[in-house]
Automatic annotation (TrEMBL):
One of its GO terms (biological process) is protoporphyrinogen IX biosynthetic process. The lineage of its organism: Archaea, Methanobacteriati, Methanobacteriota, Stenosarchaea group, Halobacteria. The active site is at C52 (nucleophile). The record marks H94 as: Important for activity. It comes from the Archaea. It comes from Halorubrum laminariae. This is Glutamyl-tRNA reductase. Residues 311-410 form the Tetrapyrrole biosynthesis glutamyl-tRNA reductase dimerisation domain. Keywords: NADP, Oxidoreductase, Porphyrin biosynthesis.
Length: 446
């Protein structure tokens, strides 16, 4: 019996790792990471997500040891304490927590939902998404939406972009100041919108693609201007605040950009870094990165504790549902295999009986149908009790009972794994004939 295995995951995130360690993990983006993992022995599916405060990957393998080996290449240069390794159940729960915003630097932030969806699509484009990870990520997104619809986990919660503005407001007086937002992505947009609610008098949006910068500039009421990245040497010296959040693989702000800037606060919320750390050596320059936002976000986290507990209860409920659904799938796979084996025996014996009856005289269609109906009824009655027992065994992770049943009914099916975290894809062998009293297959809970 061919069986799809369990999920194995690895996480390098802000809770355990520094910005440099997050940047060092994961390689050259989601698609490249997924493609690399799929090329490794035993990996059937792969999913990766990389944001400014996390770099994570998940694989599906028949043997959990293969998953662990495949993920060794994900963060080889990162210290052990910064790397969190996850088994099947931990991976499912972690993805739900990530989607709900419980694992975000800013508790409950909404941006992660879009990032998770984008990572899913990129992983899918790279050929990494199969039935196991599809169910896992889809469930995580469902939980994330429930968390925001049924609780106030995101009420008043800031994004990294708005957290950067809050941090800047504690350092300088923004009244009549000039701010430069580098990057026209989601974080840049959120930073610009948050700046729009401050007393700054001007917002400059810089981006490699100017039309995208113009779109962000048009979203704010504060006087704004869109410029290309090439204009940064001219606009940064006149600014009081710089917030950078591009997707560039190389720094876009170097020390020369701030050489004559005077007093200026620079906040780098990009990963990899947008601002060369050497810029902080220039007189009057104060540079913060993602790590520095922890203090700002800690206060928000304290105010969200009650809502977080409610979200955790939702996760517990949904995790139990998906685990039970996976167990049913595993039992259904074993039951389908059992019925397939019985059906082969039934077909062989019916043909033999019909041949003997025909040798004794003419056999009518009605008589032939009676023989076949009797054989189907015998199979259904004989396998009804084992079917219920197999479902009970799967619910209790009693794989010895399932293995024994498979060996008794069909010695070919003797490869069911020991691990409780593994589960099998649906098979349709039982659909070839009348099903047992309880449906052999059940859909995954929404």
């Amino acid at each position: 019996m061919n069986e799809t295995g369990a999920i194995t995951g690895v996480s390098v995130a802000h809770s355990h790792a520094t910005v440099d360690e997050i940047e060092a993990a994961g390689g050259d983006g989601v698609r490249a990471t997924v493609s690399d993992l799929l090329a490794r022995d035993g990996v059937e599916e792969a999913f990766a997500i990389q944001t400014c405060n996390r770099s994570e990957a998940f694989v599906v393998t028949d043997r959990t040891v293969d998953g662990a080996v495949a993920l060794e290449s994900f963060a080889p240069a990162v210290r052990g304490g910064a790397v969190r390794r996850l088994d099947h159940e931990e991976s499912l729960e972690h993805l739900m927590r990530v989607a709900s915003g419980l694992e975000s630097l800013v508790l409950g932030e909404d941006q992660i939902i879009g990032q998770l969806r984008e990572a899913y699509e990129e992983s899918k484009s790279a050929g990494g998404i199969g039935p196991v990870l599809k169910d896992a990520v889809t469930k995580a997104l469902h939980v994330g939406e429930r968390a925001r619809n049924e609780t106030s986990i995101n009420e008043g919660v800031v994004s990294l972009g708005s957290a950067a503005v809050r941090l800047a407001a504690t350092e300088i007086d923004l009244t009549d100041g000039s701010a430069v937002v580098i990057g026209a992505g989601e974080m840049g947009m959120l930073a610009a919108r948050t700046l729009d609610d401050t007393p700054v008098s001007e917002i400059v949006v810089a981006n490699r693609t100017v039309p995208n910068a113009e779109f962000v500039a048009e979203e704010v009421d504060t006087p704004s201007e869109a410029v290309p990245l090439a204009d940064l040497p001219g606009v940064i010296p006149d600014a009081d605040l710089v917030i950078s959040a591009t997707g560039s693989t190389d720094p876009v702000v170097d020390p020369d950009h701030v050489a004559v800037a005077g007093e200026i606060v620079c906040i780098d919320i990009a990963q990899p870094r947008d601002i060369d750390p050497a810029a902080a050596d220039r007189s009057g320059v104060t540079l913060y990165d993602i790590d520095a936002l922890e203090d700002v976000t800690r206060r928000t986290r304290e105010s969200r504790k009650e809502e977080a507990r409610t979200v955790e209860a939702i996760i517990d409920e949904e995790l139990d549902r998906i685990l039970q659904a996976y167990k049913r799938k595993r039992a259904d796979d074993a039951i389908s295999a059992m019925y397939a084996g019985a059906d082969r025996v039934k077909a062989r014996e019916v043909d033999r009986a019909v041949s003997k009856l025909e040798s004794q005289g003419d056999l009518t269609d009605a008589q032939r149908e009676t023989v076949e109906d009797m054989a189907d009824a015998l199979v259904g009655q004989l396998l009804a009790a084992p079917t219920r027992s197999l479902r009970d065994a799967a619910g209790e992770d009693d794989w010895e009972t399932i293995r024994t049943a498979l060996q008794l009914f069909d010695p070919e099916f003797d490869t069911l794994p020991d691990r409780p975290g593994a589960f099998a894809p649906e098979h349709d062998a039982a659909a070839e004939f009348d099903a047992p009293p309880d449906s052999v297959t059940e859909e995954l809970d929404d």
